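Page 42, continued from yesterday. The earlier attempt failed because a stray header line got pasted into the input along with the sequence. Redoing it now with the clean sequence only.
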Amino acid sequence: MEDPPFADSGAPASSSTSVSPTARAAGLAGMAHAALTPARLGKVGLFLVSLFLFILALTLMKEGANGFAPLVRDRFAITGILDSLGFGWLCAYLLMSGSPVAATALTFYNAGILNQLSTFAMITGSRLGASFIVLSVGFIYVLRGRDRATSLGMGLLSLAVTGSTYLLGMVIGLSALRAWLPDSLYLHSGVALGPTTDLTFDPLIGSLLSFLPHWGLFLVGLGIMLVSFNLFDRCLPQMAIKSSHVGGVSQLVYRRWVMFLLGAAVTLISMSVSVSLGILVPLSNRGFVRRENVVPYILGANITTFIDTLLASVLLGNPAAFTIVLIQMTSITLVSAVILATAYRPYERSVLRFTSWVTARNRNLIVFMISIFAIPIVLMLL
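This time it went through. Structure tokens are written below.
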């Protein structure tokens, strides 16, 4: 063990060496100064800017959602559960992100364009579409000459786990919304945020409405929301993948509940399932994790990915919107917990066999890729 930096270099180190209060205070001050480096302060500032833009974007989308009522109801005929599911799914593909689409579903519900069940289904579709991002990262690695099965495996596994758990969770959640929507789950405190945001953003909204239609406000808000999520991703700490960092926790990947909690924690911190699942692709290519060990991680990540949507429901000040998101989180948590506790091994073997089948032949991969784009289109046409 090295001597403390404030120890007398001329005296022999010993266990009885004491540290004066002045030296200890100096050491703590040095640590605090190191923590407040310009780079770290810059990331804190970037986070605050991204949070401000998120609130601004949601306010604009809320004000402009009514302008999309004729388009959504009449042109696209998005009124039922299946077409809402397909609509959210396709929109997540187009935006390459699920969170803005989930926020859009809440603003549509707040404007009366969608009902509770359709909103629930559209949010589910947004999460199904967001899983495609991880597969896209895998395709990039394939284009760089990496092994196809390894690179695409994590994305396919993410799609398989997300699709199976979210569809089961949707059945449970829709049943709960149909039969039981308790007032006790309403979050009435979110309404208090309304006057604050109105006072801050009303002048800006009035200026924009002087030359933009209401639906234009929604598009501006959607663009700002995409920027806010991009800024938030940039303020996350950069992680260097080194074997020395992974070796100490290598045994944890064999503990399903530990990996489940880890996936939930990483997504909670990053507020992006694309980030928390996307890192699995480089980790898999470098041999740090195997597909057999990440199913619980994906299950956990798919629960806390709703945190930003839950925040959006609070900012909207609509108690029923909060309840919809909360029931969605509860349904996915219930499905994941049952799988981990009672049927984990058969479930794991099933999703791994599926991913192996898709990557075994080019024909299988082509059929799969056509299917994941055709299914949401068919759902919208039903």
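Notes: The chain has a mean pLDDT of 76.
Reminder to self: strip header lines before submitting.
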